[in-house]
Each structure stands twice: as C-alpha cells, then as structure tokens.
Design brief:
alpha+beta; two-stranded parallel ribbon; two-stranded antiparallel sheet; flat; aa-tRNA-synth_II/BPL/LPL; Gly-tRNA_ligase_asu
Length: 82
C-alpha cells in the first residue's frame, strides 16, 4: 500500500514539479480575494505581452459566505492551487 501524502507534501510535490517546468514559485497573496484568479500574480501579469508562468497556493477568504447559517462546518477559507 502506498504512503498517503500530507497536505504539505502535496503542495511541495506540485511546487517541485512546476519549478522544473520553469514556473516561478510565488507566495500567496493573503487578502480577501474570493478566487485565486484575482491575485496580482495572475491578474496584473496577464495583461503584459510576455509569457508568465507562476505557481502558488492561494487562500481564498470569503467572509461574506461564512457569516450566515448555524452549521459549524461552514467555513469561509479554502485553498486553491494555481
């Protein structure tokens, strides 16, 4: 039976893979953005003429989605790997 990877090991494996492909390893932009595509790494560089290859794990904080309801499992933070 194969070893189960932890969340950190999965992220590290993905970063190593994309680094070998020539992508820039970026740190997360921790702000209330909703989705990783609103990160400055993605949004601002997409407008330039040069190709841009970046990888980062983006926390997606959406307090407006998590403030209502009585379910204790209703979270307003998820992680996206871009």
């Amino acid at each position: 039976m194969s070893k189960k990877l932890t969340f950190q090991e999965i992220i590290l494996t993905l970063q190593e893979f994309w680094s070998k492909q020539g992508a820039n390893l970026m740190q997360a932009y921790d702000n209330e953005v909703g989705t990783g595509t609103m990160s400055p790494y993605t949004f601002l560089r997409a407008n330039g003429p040069e190709p841009w290859h970046a990888t980062y794990v983006q926390p997606s904080r959406r307090p407006a989605d998590g403030r209502y309801g009585e379910n204790p499992n209703r979270l307003f933070l998820c992680l996206e790997t871009l």
